[in-house]
Write a structure and sequence with these properties.
This protein has about 200 residues and is an alpha/beta fold. It has 7 helices and 7 strands, in the order H-H-E-E-H-E-E-E-H-H-E-H-H-E.
Length: about 200
């Protein structure tokens, strides 16, 4: 239901504020021009229902190039449409979503803005993501470390991040690592809020 309402609202953003005159006639059977006349409490409930829909935040990286020797993070995930319908919807969106921040020293900080609701949204790391990029993201991003609850990742990448490093060195010790049996990524130590990990192909 909320998706259908969202469709109505997106195509009728001009009706978010009540005008002095009567609303224009509906142009199609999908129009709901009386939305601005609903009680404010009901409109707020509708916006909150729309904002509560779970989303998947996709993250991948571009190939390297002469001007981007390390590549760059990018995502096909769009900003939730509730941000751009009207001022009323945006105020609800701002209270529900957080801008995903990237540490300045992380590899390939993206140009686009990514919004996430940490209580229900899933961070999806693409299956072509290298372990170097994944480790850099999960170890350096303080937001992700403190608030990420749902993660989707390829099983092979997950195993690579969590495998023992002892096999990487014939002496059983990797330079820069305190213990030879430590994983590449300390999940419990770094992702403190993590509740669920799903594997994808």
């Amino acid at each position: 239901m909320s998706t259908r309402i969202m469709y109505f609202m997106y195509h009728h953003a001009q009706h978010c504020s009540i005008s002095a005159g009567p609303p224009p006639p509906a142009k199609s059977t999908d129009s709901f021009t009386l939305f601005p006349l609903l009680p404010a409490e009901l409109r707020l409930k509708i916006w909150q229902t729309i904002a509560a829909e779970r989303q998947i935040i996709e993250l991948s990286c571009t190939p390297t190039s002469p001007n981007l020797p390390t590549g760059r993070w990018f995502s096909h995930t769009k900003t939730p449409i509730i941000f751009s319908v009207c001022s009323e919807s945006r105020s609800v969106a701002v209270s529900e979503f957080t801008l995903l921040q990237f540490s300045p020293d992380q590899i390939g900080v993206p140009r686009q803005s990514l919004y996430i609701n940490w209580s229900r949204d899933t961070l999806w790391l693409c299956n072509d993501l290298s372990s170097v990029w994944a480790k850099d993201l999960l170890e350096k991003n303080e937001q992700i470390q403190a608030q990420l609850r749902f993660l989707a990742i390829s099983e092979s990448l997950w195993k690579t991040l969590n495998q023992s490093s002892a096999s990487s060195s014939p002496t059983g010790r990797v330079p820069g690592m305190v213990r030879s049996d430590s994983p590449l990524l300390d999940v419990k130590g770094n992702l403190r809020a993590l509740e669920n990990v799903k594997f994808h192909s």
